[in-house]
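Same chain as my last thread, 187 residues:
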Amino acid sequence: MATMTRDNLWDVSSRTIVYAAIGAALYALAAQFSVLLPGPGSVSIRPAFALVTFFGFAFGPIVGLFVGLVGNALGDQLSGWGLLTSWNWSIAVGVVGFLAGLTPMYLAGWMTDRTKILIAAAVGSVIATVVGLLIVFTDVVLGTANGFNEALTANYGPAVVSDVIVVAILTPILVAIWEPVKEQLGR
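reply #2:
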């Protein structure tokens, strides 16, 4: 895995733009396939959510932010929910991708072999999900949740539980698939 440094972390190149656009499109399309959990929060198990953390982990925080933010908004539009209906959730998903993108930089010295890279992908993705989705508590201020308890039990809790399960399993799998491809491409 190429080591990200503080110097190149914020570079926006044509490659960054291409990966961000591909990731956002893939996430928006794949997000249409989910399983709705019973309950009042319209929360789903979304295997596509692992694309957000994968793109962040593999290509950096700028790509992760774009994939989560734009991909979630486009996915909402495609599903009929509306492009900006839940804009705060799109921001939250973008922050998840951003935080996942910081993982390789901060764990670069530790990620010395394939197993550690996959562990870092899982742990970084889980932490990014738990922290990034805290933004959904803005539902209380926006009036889309009737108080903190509803935001916690109907929105944040179910989303975090389902998304943590998804990213802990699928992000390392995607990273494991990407690593040999990346080496063949010379990235």
